[in-house]
Amino acid sequence: MPNRELAPPQGLEQQVACVWIGDGSAVHVLPDACVDVVWTRGRLMVAGPATGPEVAPPTPGQGRCGVRFRVGAAGAALGLPASELLDEIVPLEEIWGAAGRRLEDRVALAARPLDALVAGVHDRIAGAGDDLVREAVFRLRGGEDSVERLARATAVSERQLRRRFERGVGYGPRTLRRVLRFQRFLGLATAGGSLARLAADAGYADQAHLVRDCRRLAGTTPSALLAAGASPAGERPDMAETFKPATTGPATLVA
Fold first, then answer.
1. Is 165 left (phi over 0), alpha (psi -120 to 50) or beta?
2. Which of 1, 81, 164, 181 has its CA 20 to 30 A from that of 130?
3. Cβ–Cβ < 8 Å for 85, 169
4. Are the C-beta atoms of 181 and 145 separated by less than 8 Å?
5. Who contacts 255 (Cβ-Cβ below 8 Å, separation ≥6)?
6. For residue 179, which of 70, 55, 31 has the smallest C-alpha distance?
7. Where along the chain do its domains lie?
8. Contacts of 89 (CB under 8 A, 6+ apart)
């Protein structure tokens, strides 16, 4: 596998879904609702929440590594609305300024770049993000299909819910529901089965609904995507279930 995922480091479990190491191969990246800080080609870059497919080009002779934030945690962790990073890849120093440049220098000089990156992220953030957003994410994972009911369950207006989603996730709950359903399909597909059955089990209205969403999010058909070896990514359900929203309020940047 081009990328190998590892468990979140101790002390960052509430903010980080996983850390990962890549061998420098080209990687076909599909929307997964997460935001990553990536060490690649001697730079620290932030890959924002994606709404379409991207290809990370190969880096021959140079591995990659990264920290992947939990769904909804990136805005608080990075200190800006995640919507400002929508479908963008930007240098970390554009977000963290001098602190980002210092961390980039530390990672460049480190014998183990991932360890230096994790330590830098740990030093920079505290808290888990917006508990309301995390609660809403859990409800969406559980199959909630109405933004109106989601807002009612979290005791906020639909407009406020969307604003908080845009800050924490990068886009609204309807888009997140679509991305989570798509990732659910990819997860189920690893065990095989007909497209019709996979579509039903993932929560699509029918196979045609799956095809439309797949074209929108991956730029191709479900059959072509699975034939190319696509696999689920992002915050896996088993990782998500280990996290319970904290009661200490939103995350704050450490000065």
1. alpha
2. 181
3. no
4. no
5. none
6. 31
7. 3-129, 131-240
8. 45, 46, 47, 48
* Class level of CATH domain 131-240: mainly alpha
Rg (CA), the chain: 18
Biggest distance spanned by C-alpha atoms of the chain: 53
What residue type is 220 in one-letter code? T
- Residue 246 phi, psi dihedral angles, 5° rounding: -75, 170
At 101, list the tokens.
Answer: 């440049």
Residue 121 and residue 12 in contact, taking contact as beta carbons nearer than 8 Å: yes
Mean pLDDT, the chain cut into blocks of 10 residues (255 residues total):
84 92 92 97 97 92 94 92 97 96 97 96 79 91 84 92 95 95 96 96 96 97 95 76 45 37
pTM, rounded to two decimals: 0.89
Cross-strand partners of 89: 47
The tokens of 175 are what? 């888009």
In 26-97, alpha helices (H): 74-78, 93-96
Helix (H, G, I), strand (E, B) or coil at 46: strand
For residues 255 and 249, what is the distance between their CA atoms, to the nearest angstrom? Answer: 18
Phi then psi for residue 156, to 5 deg, are -135, 165
